[in-house]
Amino acid sequence: MTPAPHETGALEFFAYLSTAQVALAALVLTIVRVFALQRYKAAVEAHKAVEDAGSFWAFIAEICESFLVAGVLVFFIIRPFFIQAFYIPTESMENTLMGHDTFDPTTGQTYAHAVHDRIFVNKLIYRFTNPKRGDVIVFRAPKAADSDDIALGKPLKENILIKRVIGIPGDTIQIKQVGPYDYVFRNGVQLNEYHNPKLPYSIKDPMDPSLNPNFKYGFESPVHLGPGQYWVMGDNRNYSFDSRYWGVVTRDRVIGKAFFIFWPLNRIGFIH
């Protein structure tokens, strides 16, 4: 039996900056700005070195003010309510979102270059609408999805994961083997997701039936999605720890919709 994949949660840019640390940085910038303004005022009043010292301290004050305004906008307005940036640490959404080092111990593959996409997530959109089939969403996963700590026997935590929505409330999802591969059946209809020109995305490889004994949901019997329940899967199906292993995502756990890759430069583009 092929072992279940292990997966690390997506990392938010500035994920390790607490509100207290941001406030401390703002305080330091404010102190520097006040000091710079005082030096500038002293230089002007003394009528000496205004062109040099005065202008220098005025420049420092302006820089501090710019950082303060930008910090307030990003951390207290844009980040909580509009857009948040995340870093993709693993390969579970490849080839849609890349997340691998030069050697990937999970897959055993080697690559010429390490690639970890940085993405923007729209946090505003789901205040007005609900996730749709095919959306790539970021969400706070249940503790059962913490594959790393399950393997290590550590206390489980709620990671931030990114997956594609396959089923929405009212759908029935089941995984069935057809010939040499597995397929997702939604409401009794087989989904052909591997290089299907009718879809805006493709799964990386056909689904490997050797993983089936690991599945807790959707294989032996169909899963009926109730109100506020979503079935999510990674595009790299054979290396994604998703709803097949730990169940559904509830609506209250959804953070936002991934919509744009902003780094690396050769990967810039919208997410489909």
List the helices and strands in order. EHHEEEEEEEHEEEEEEHEEE
* Rg computed from alpha carbons, rounded to a whole number of angstroms: 24 Å
Distance between the termini: 33 Å
Class by SSE composition: alpha+beta
Q: Note the total helix count.
A: 4
Q: Strand portion, in percent?
A: 25-35%
Low-confidence spans: pLDDT under 50, at least 5 residues? none
- What's the pLDDT, averaged over the residues? 82
Question: What global shape is seen?
Answer: elongated
Biggest sheet character? 9 strands, antiparallel
Number of strand elements: 17
* Helicity level: 25-40%
Description:
The protein has helices at residues 19-45, 50-81, 147-152, 243-246, and strands at residues 11-12, 83-87, 99-100, 103-104, 109-110, 115-116, 118-122, 136-140, 160-167, 172-178, 181-186, 189-191, 223-224, 229-233, 249-250, 254-263, 269-270. The model has no long low-confidence stretch (mean pLDDT 82). The two termini are 33 Å apart. It is elongated and about 85 Å long. Helix content is 25%, strand content 26%. Helix 1 packs antiparallel against helix 2 (50-81). Strands 1, 2, 7, 8, 9, 14, 15, 16 and 17 form a 9-stranded antiparallel beta sheet that branches. The protein has a 4-stranded antiparallel beta sheet with strand order 12-11-10-13, with no helix packed on it. A two-stranded antiparallel ribbon has the order 3-6.
